Amino acid sequence: MSDDTSAKPQSEAERRAERKAERLAEQLRANLQRRKAQVRARREGKPDETEGLPAAGKTRTPGD
Questions:
Q1: Distinct helix (H) and strand (E) counts, the chain
Q2: What is the pLDDT of residues 31-50, one digit of tens each?
Q3: C-alpha distances out from residue 1 to 5, 7, 8, 15, 22, Å
Q4: pLDDT at residue number 12
Q5: Residue 28 and residue 22: Cα distance in Å, rounded?
Q6: How much of the chain is in helix, strand and coil states, percent to nearest 5?
Q7: Burial of 41 (0-12, 13-18, 19+ CB in 10 A)
């Protein structure tokens, strides 16, 4: 008596959920690599180029 689930056809919802989980796992790995690179750069004394919000542009002073 074997439990071979790979032989069963998956429903569309199961396939979508599996693809989503794979995408999320890939994003998590990429984020972890970026974070590790930031830590290594800080240890080497390099400036952190990712500080702030690049999409925010220049900051405005009140009254502008």
A1: 1, 0
A2: 999 999 988 888 887 666 66
A3: 13, 14, 16, 26, 30
A4: 93
A5: 10
A6: 60, 0, 40
A7: middle
